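Bit of a strange request maybe. I'm writing a small parser for structure token strings and I need a real example to test against, not something I typed by hand. Could someone generate the tokens for this chain?
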Amino acid sequence: MTESKSQLLLDHYLKQLKLPTMLREYAAVVSACTQDHCDYVSFLLRLVEREALDREKRAAERRVKSARFPILKTWIPSTSPLSRRSTRSSSES
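Reply from user aminoacidic:
Good idea to test on real output. This should exercise your parser:
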């Protein structure tokens, strides 16, 4: 089987299995493992680890979004000249 056909099939199956991180990251993991002389199990471990971490991150983001927490409003004192005048005039009185 040619490399391009293998790559197309891999892309297709990763999409079908809904593994977006593996689809996006496998080329980078292949090159990193080639440089590090990793065995096949280490390659799979790195790739699956990235998918798992990304899923955990996205799940946490979904939970926070669905919780609909109130927006925290913070007060930052103004540094405009108008606010300084009003503070001075009230403190001088």
